[in-house]
Every structure is written in structure tokens, then in C-alpha cells.
């Protein structure tokens, strides 16, 4: 079996465990959740963050992501990368629901919209540098994640 095929099978097994509410066996220090309705972007963010040594769970469905957060230990995820514009449950609605479960969880918004200033006025506890505009590059996302994870 090729390495990429084995990696793909492991990812499929891990996603199946996640959907069943289980915590996959292989876990490092920081667990990150990515909620992005575009599968290609979800995969890109996942690869970037995994290469940095983070455990990354991804969801394209915001309701499934919320269900995951509600089922597990509230302190399991250190950080969530959250797209603002999604069908059904948008990123702001999801933000408030997740914060009701774990007020201390750190969130980075990712958006193609130019609404950073407006968003800051709504979310007074969110610093401006934790809103990332698309297109996102590797250095920006890794530096922002590191900075937020290491901040108190």
C-alpha cells in the first residue's frame, strides 16, 4: 500500500470516528477544529496545520461541527478556524453557540468579506488580528494560529 493511500485510509477512519462522537487515538497537544463549507479549503487548512504538528478535525457542515463540540469535553479544542459565510448556520451564529459551550475557546474567523471593522464592533472580545481575509497563505495562517494559541 502506498503512503498516500495509507494516509487517506487513516483520515477516513478518523473522520468516521469523529462522526460517531469518538476521539481518534492519535492526538498531540493542540486540537484545532476547522469549519469551512468549501471542501478544498477545508483540506488545505487541514494539511497546513497538520504539517505544523496540530491535530485537526474538519467539518463542512456547521451543524455537524456544533454537534461535535457539544458532545466532547469542552476544553478538547484549543482553537477553531471558522468561516463566516456558510449556508444554514453562519459563522457568527456558530461562534455564539460554541462560546455558550466553552467561553474560553479561541476562534479565528476566515472570510472573503471585507467586514473586519464591523465584526470587531460586534465581537468586542475578538482582537482585529484574529480575522483572516481570504485568500489565506500558509505563513499567515500558521503565524496567526501560533500567536493565538500561545496567548493567554
Account of the 3D structure:
With 152 residues, this protein is α/β, with parallel strands linked by helices. The protein has a single domain (3-19, 28-150), classed as Rossmann fold. It is 47% helix and 16% strand. It is built from 6 helices and 5 strands; from the N terminus they run αβαβαβαβαβα. The chain has helices spanning 3-19, 39-51, 62-71, 91-101, 116-122, 138-150; strands at residues 31-35, 55-59, 79-83, 106-111, 131-133. Strands 2-1-3-4-5 form a 5-stranded parallel beta sheet, sandwiched between helices. Helix 4 (91-101) links the parallel strand 3 (79-83) and strand 4 (106-111). Helix 3 runs parallel beside helix 4 (91-101). The chain is globular and about 45 Å long.
Amino acid at each position: 500500500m502506498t503512503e498516500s493511500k495509507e494516509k487517506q485510509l487513516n483520515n477516513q477512519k478518523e473522520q468516521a470516528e469523529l462522526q460517531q462522537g469518538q476521539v481518534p487515538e492519535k492526538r498531540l497537544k493542540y486540537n484545532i477544529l476547522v469549519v469551512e463549507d468549501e471542501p478544498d479549503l477545508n483540506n488545505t487548512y487541514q494539511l497546513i496545520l497538520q504539517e505544523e504538528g496540530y491535530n485537526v478535525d474538519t467539518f463542512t457542515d456547521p451543524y455537524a461541527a456544533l454537534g461535535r463540540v457539544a458532545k466532547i469535553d469542552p476544553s478538547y479544542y484549543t482553537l477553531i478556524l471558522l468561516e463566516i459565510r456558510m449556508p444554514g448556520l453562519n459563522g457568527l451564529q456558530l461562534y455564539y453557540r460554541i462560546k455558550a459551550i466553552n467561553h474560553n475557546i479561541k476562534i479565528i474567523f476566515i472570510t472573503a468579506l471585507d467586514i473586519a471593522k464591523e465584526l470587531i464592533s460586534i465581537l468586542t472580545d475578538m482582537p482585529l488580528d484574529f480575522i483572516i481575509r481570504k485568500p489565506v497563505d500558509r505563513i499567515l495562517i500558521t503565524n496567526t494560529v501560533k500567536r493565538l494559541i500561545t496567548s493567554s
